[in-house]
C-alpha cells in the first residue's frame, strides 16, 4: 500500500510517482507501461484512478496509447519530464529552499554536495 496525501488528487500523485519512475528509466522509452490492473493492484487503487493517471501522462506527452496493446513510453519522454521538473523546482521549490538556507546562515560550502553520497 502507498500513502497518499490530501494536497492533490490521487491520480495526479500517481502520475507523479510513475513519472519519477520514468526519470529512473522504468520502463525504458519505447517500452510498455505495466497494465492498468497491475498498477491498480500494486498501488491499491481503483483501475479508474489509474486510468486517469495514465491519461494525464498521455496529455503531458509522456505516453501513447496503442489500441489493444496498452500504454507505451514515448521517445524523449524522460527529457520532457526532466525539463518540466527542473522548471517546477526552480520556480516553486528552490525559492523556498534558498530562503530557508539564508535564514539558517548556510552557504554552498556548508552543504557538502556530492552525487556519490546520494548513490548516483
Automatic annotation (TrEMBL):
GO terms for molecular function: DNA binding; DNA-binding transcription factor activity. SMART domains: HTH_GNTR. Keywords: DNA-binding, Transcription, Transcription regulation. InterPro entries: Tscrpt_reg_HTH_GntR, WH-like_DNA-bd_sf, WH_DNA-bd_sf. It comes from Chitinibacter fontanus. The keyword Protease does not apply. Residues 8-76 form the HTH gntR-type domain. This is GntR family transcriptional regulator. SUPFAM superfamilies: Winged helix' DNA-binding domain (SSF46785). Pfam families: GntR.
